[in-house]
Batch of 2 targets.
Target 1
Amino acid sequence: MKNKLIYMWENLPITRKLFLEIAATAVVLFASNLFIYTQINQMVERMNSVYMSNVNLNELSDSLSEVQNYMYRYLQVKDSESLTNYYRSEQDYRKLLEGLNVSVTDNKIQILEKNIRNMSDSYLAITDETVQAKRGQNVEKYKVSYEAALKQYRFINNDISVLNSLQFKNNSASYQTLQAALQYLEVISSVILIIVMIISITVMMMITKDMVTPLINLAHTAKLVGQGNFNVKVPAVQAGDELGIVTGTFNQMVESLDEYVQKIKESAEKEQEMKERELLMENHLKEAQLKYLQSQINPHFLFNSLNAGVQLAMMEDAEKTSVFMEKMADFFRYNVKKGSEDATISEEIETIENYIYILNVRFAGDIHYSSCIEEGALNYSIPSMSLQPLVENAVTHGIRNIEWPGKIHLSVKDREDEIEIRIEDNGKGMNEETLKRVQAGKPSGERKESTGIGIYNVVSRLRLYYNYDDIFHILSEGEDKGTTIVLRIPKRGGGSYVSDIGSG
Amino acid sequence: MDKRKKSLLLLVLAGLLVIVFLTGLTSSFYGYVLKKTGLEHSEKNSVYKYHYVMIIDNLDSQFWNDVYESVREEAALHDAYVELKGKDQSSEYTTVDFMDMSIAAKVDGILLEFTGETRLEERINEATAKGIPVVTILNDAPTSGRKSYVGINSYQLGQEYGNQILKILPKETRKIRVLMFLHDNSSDSSQSQIFNQINNRMVTSGETSNHIEVEEVKVPSGRAFESEEIVRNLFQNDLGPPDIIICMDEVDTEAVYQAVIDYNCVGRTQVIGYYKSKATLDAVLKGTMAMSLYIDTRQMGKYSVQALTESIRDGRTNSFNSVDLEFVTKENALGFVNNQWSSHEK
């Protein structure tokens, strides 16, 4: 029951809580005021009625005098008006007498009242007799009766005055007591009011504090959160009112804020990383392009010249020369055209083949090139000019100047989620030291006869392009035992991730 | 939080307790005030069936107050309340007037100290005619229609006085004067009878008959300081103060005693006092007063109420109830001081 009440109270809206609180205080104050007011009112009423008995006695005395006077008047003049008046006043007097005590008690006042009543009865009997005697012209009798009536009239008057003074004395004492009581009551009332006030104020303060404390906590926490501290929480509020809701929601909000900020931080870091990578790639590309540009002296003029050479060779039926020149033109065109774009693996392979052909013409078929290509891998994209430098490297550093026929084997394998490209030669091979240096990706420095793009450039570009370190492997079993370069390229369909890098 | 709630509850409870306590205090105080102001007296007073009136001559008398006290006690046992009427300093009524009042007030019974006023017997008869029984106390009105008399046997008392006087008589052969103050006006009253009996006793006693003279002084009732002046006159008389003075009333007793001291007559003038006021008892103890008459007020109250009740209930009663009397002398005064005085002292 109690818990239920507390539960109900806690789930009340603040407006209703405040209203109930103020209403309860008001009701309590009103009730105590009412109580006090009633008490004081009663007291005042008592005080007002204290002298009532004296007033009544005075009325009685006046009425008695009237009876006596009208009787006297009638005896004097015997007119009907006095007679009527006499009877009326007698009636009045009897009515007043009814208010007096009849029982025998040991209270002086009541005994006096009883005496007055009985004496008045006797007196009225005598006055009646007197009036009757007067009407009957019984002069002798009415005179005697009148004397008797007068005597009793005096007795009664005396008793009334005694009673009056007795009651006055009593009443004065009562009045004084009541007055003292009233003062006492005032003090008590003030004390009660003060107590009620103190309690009401304390209760109100405590309840209000219950309501305000969460707000203060909330404000404090909000300040902390505003300063960037998300690890704070507002102490939970049990109440189900607005404050409870606000506190709960605030805590939730802080949590989500924390999460969001974390996420944003992460993505900002990522972006930063990506930007750095892009910049690096751009640098490498720029470097590669620069190298090309150095070697491209008006390529269009060269291509056109080469094409003119192809035409000329065909006209002279020099078929080999024609093919050679065509391949040369294709090779350089590719270089120029694809310098800034992604290429497919098949385009790269074609370029390799063109390059080998050219070399074989230059060096009279010294290079034995073979390839094993899986069709499925051909259409995946790859940064342009990434395979040819490797082949060039194999030729330059591998099979040039060896005593045995140099071989180069290219294989492209379509693995599950990557494409493995292998370039094998049976050339000089390299020792462990060189192998480590190359694997670590350090430029060698000697580039006399290359097309200008070093292995380091290729590897860096690939790594940046795919954002994947484990992309390049170089294997050699030792000096004169050939070298194998293995590229593991993640599959990345036709779409290009950083296709527009060099287009600017 | 919980602790705060607890203290809050405690505070509210304490406050309520204080308020309840104050309210209780107020209401009890209020009740006390009401009682004190007498506004509720009708509930507090006991109610009786009969209303008696006791009419006496002097309201200030210790003797009569003692009688009234026992009358009240006895009356309460018989379901009756007794109202005391009598003369005091401010009163201008006579006993006859009181009788008239009581008859007009239709009381149930009257106890009357018969004063011998004229027409008082008529009033007794009138009351009897109206069905109000009248019982005379201390002084009788034997010729009236009173239902009963409660008091001392005058003859017996006179004899007793005589005996006591003989005891304290100075052993001289000169003429000895015995003086008695009477408050009664009629010649056949109780006090006159007492006087006659004393006189008789003195005269009939062989040893004293010749040289003892018994005088009476009548003190008229209703005039202030009457006895005091009479006493002073007596002492300033050429004859000198009498040898023995018999008082039939407390005021006389004290006035005479004071005069005896003032005129330096201690030892020469013997005083036989009346009743046992403190001063009287002191004087008897010191030996400056010979003795004092003590009438049993308890018996008097008891018998008078019984007589009234009987006459109301049965219509008749004993016409005479004798009350014990005793003389307080130096020998037994201490007993009175210890027992009786203390029981009536308020």
Note: The interface with chain A takes residues 4, 8, 11-12, 15, 18-19, 22-23, 25-26, 29-30, 33, 36-39, 41-42, 45-51, 72, 76, 80-81, 83, 97, 100-101, 103-107 of chain B (CB under 8 Å).
Target 2
Amino acid sequence: MKYMLLIHQGTTPTPNDPEAWGRLSGEEQKGIFQAYQALNETAGVTSGMQMEGPEAATTVQVKDGKTLTTDGPFVEMKEALGGYLFFEADDLDAAIELASRIPAASMGGAIEVRPLVEW
Amino acid sequence: MLAALIGFLGDFELAEEATQEAFAIAAARWPRDGTPEHPRAWLITTARNRAINRIRRDRTLAEKTRLLDAPEPNEDELEEMTFSDERLELIFTCCHPALSTEAQVALTLRTLGGLGTEEIARAFLVPAPTMAQRLVRAKRKIKAAGIPFRVPADHLLPDRLAAVLAVLYLIFNEGWSARNSLAEEALRLGRAIAELMPDEPEAHGLLALMLLHDSRRAARSRDGELVLLADQDRKLWNVAQIADGRAALERALALRGRGPYVVQAAIASLHAEDSCDWPQIVALYSELLSLTGSPVVELNRAIAVAEASGAAAGLELVDRVELDSFHYLHSTRAELLRRLDRTQEARQALERALELVHDDAERRLLQRRLAGLG
């Protein structure tokens, strides 16, 4: 099975928000980087490209042939997608286990596990 | 049978269809040719062959005609065949936390309990098409999301077993009020789980709890009206079931079980004694409270304290419980106030309970008690 893990940062401090990020100790910051590194080195994981924060997002909709452009993500700022990775695993339990190791899952965010359609 | 097939095929819908086909073939063939010596093995093998055919048929249309007449199982080959019991794997799949609780309950009843979709729909008071839709969606999710068909690894087992037991207890409680078939089904599944996981104290604890509660079913209502525990005719209690429940509790305790179901079963066992050991019940509720932190448990503990140490001590604790929207809180307060001769306050508490109650039998019970205050 192939899964896409969508990382929603929620209230997780990230380097995109220097103020919140700065409130973490150096140890904590290091721990987060190490956790992501360990994830990316896990067998079956294909890491995603790094995204700028949702503050940099632009949302585009077309209504009656007219392109509407708005500032910010489609969903609420704190619900916005913060990152993603791919995981090839035997089953959902393995994917849930990997998801629980993503720092955002335990720091105020959530991970959505989506199976990919295989042809 | 379904469990064995799902285990083999890894596909709920395919397994169900193949099972139905096998039964249809049996219905046509057995009366004519006689019942095979190993009916279950015959059915499983037939269903399996049908399913394999279907898989192949879907893959290559060209082979369609040739494979349609794949042979039915040969009686001689069946003698040696055994099919592993895969009910345990199946229940862990059905109660996977990635499914909604409603879906877990429905799927467990459908695939392990063998209840029909309409029956489940009736039991949960939803229209049959809604229930059918719920089941279809759940089965699709199992397949699409890759929910595994196996007993979880040791480090996941405590949480996942708790989820399975919670589903069974939910089914039991749903059946407790009026729908007896559900309670029976929960008991049957509870027995199966305790048998399949003989080293898990909580599995025995839940079975004990359900048996001990169920043993009082006949005494619990008289002419459609609820009868409180203290007023029940003990001759109506099912003695054999109480003994079964206690035996299950003994096993759980021997396994050093001290989880929430074991403690609740211990309380239920004390309630089945001729004279209740209230101080002991208070101690067990304290233990349960530290395990669950539940305000409902806190309320039950307060009731036990009232029995052990008097209504005033109980009332003091009841007034600390934060469950204002729960009618039992107010009916309990009413009873304790009545015992303390604070009739006016007791009446107000009963009126508040009546505002909150939903069940008709419980409403009538409260009305009788209100009238009894004079």
Note: The longest helix of chain B spans residues 12-33.
